[in-house]
Write a structure and sequence with these properties.
Blueprint: H1 3-23, H2 29-40, H3 44-59, H4 61-72, H5 83-98, H6 103-117, H7 120-132, H8 144-152, H9 156-166, H10 169-179, E1 185-189, H11 196-207, E2 212-213, E3 220-223, H12 233-236, E4 240-242, H13 245-254, E5 261-264, H14 271-279, E6 285-290, H15 293-306, E7 312-316, H16 322-326, E8 331-336, H17 352-355, H18 358-377, E9 379-389, H19 398-407, E10 411-414, E11 420-422, E12 425-431, H20 433-436, E13 441-448
Parallel strand pairs: 5-6, 5-8, 6-7, 8-9
Antiparallel strand pairs: 1-3, 1-4, 2-3, 9-13, 10-13, 11-12, 12-13
Protein name: Fmu (Sun) domain-containing protein
Active site: 390 (nucleophile)
GO molecular function: RNA binding; tRNA (cytidine-5-)-methyltransferase activity
Length: 450
Amino acid sequence: MTSRDAKTYEEAVEIVLRTLVKAERIKPTQYARRLVMKEMNPSREARSVSAGLLYSVLQKRGLLDEVIEDVLEITDDVTELDTWVRNAARIAVNEVVFEDGDPDEVADVLHGLVRRLANPGAAAIVKAFTLDLKDYEPPEPEDELDRLKWEYYHPRWLIERWMEMFGDPDEVVALLEANNRRPPLTIRVNTLKVDPEELAERLQRKYRVTVEPGRFLDEILKIPEGLPIGEMPEWEEGLFVIQDEAAALASAVLNPKPGEVVVDLCAAPGGKTTHMAQLMGGEGKIVAIDVDEVRMERLREIAERMGVLDCIETHLMDGREAPEKLGREFADAVLVDPPCSADGTIPKNPERRWRITPDELERLPKFQYELLKAGAEMVKPGGRLLYSTCSMFPEEDEEVVRRFLDEHPEFELLEVKVGDQGFDMPEACRLFPHRHETCGFFIALMGRTG
């Protein structure tokens, strides 16, 4: 490794280490990374190297922790370690065990960083641990599921669930592979300020990147190389926001029109809210409801930057209380995109695979149904109700909608003619990373009879 390469690598490792530590307090991880970038102002080469390294660490996180627990003979889990030790050890395992890096070089880099950013004691632990990885060999797979777990970096239980859902091992492998591909940066163009073709040409010319059109929506652009978001005047001017095409489709399917009253029940941080305002030409009213104060503030910031704040009315509250506090049967359209397991976002949030638990799939559907029911109470006769999630699990999607329709005969499913059909629900829409090159997503559109 040349001295220049060594300097770039050390800078990249520092970006990743500081991001991992900061992300334990600030979510999501990519937002934490942007904050670190502003603090460090690293070289372009280091930014590029760090992006790949961070993605690699996040996608293997559960396996990295297994190795740490095994080598250090931890009886509980890695959370008992100091935060700097824990995250430096994750980088060490990724580099030495999975990427065949030189243990001595990795140990020296991490030792120097932890000594400077934390303390000498933590640095000594990290160096000794990294050198101990020289002789580590991952365990032999016990069966096919175990092999897939270690080869594709996914929890065993999650692979097993997808096997049950799809019924085809080859399709599950295709999904695992898609989850491990770093997706392009996907942006939604603010058509109230600029034409998509005009912005695409500007980005290509100014930043020397490849810009590809979206698959389903004209306002979506994809940039494989990514963009220096925090440094871009186009971002500050509100010419675009970061949003996956599947998420943007939810707003497009609901199709809010100028002059309508629309409710976004789980609105923050504002991707769908601002998209609907854009589709409405800034005319009408969007009632944006969310329980998270920090994320709601981000919604206001995004809306102001995009020039649509004047048509958005924000309410900080539990969405389930909205009908009682704001009224019933007043909205032309209501969008309900509740908290979910978010397994569909694994391609862009690689650590999500290790955060999902089977308990979530038992707990969340009740909460999701309650939010859908509350949203329905605000739809006036003849209005529209859209339910969407970034989950691929039927219990969060079709089963929630089916229960709702059984108990609310005044609503009926309307056909969504995009993507694949829902599981045993042909009117609904499903998108998958391995089939549509988007996040995994579910959309069901319902109409209320007059």
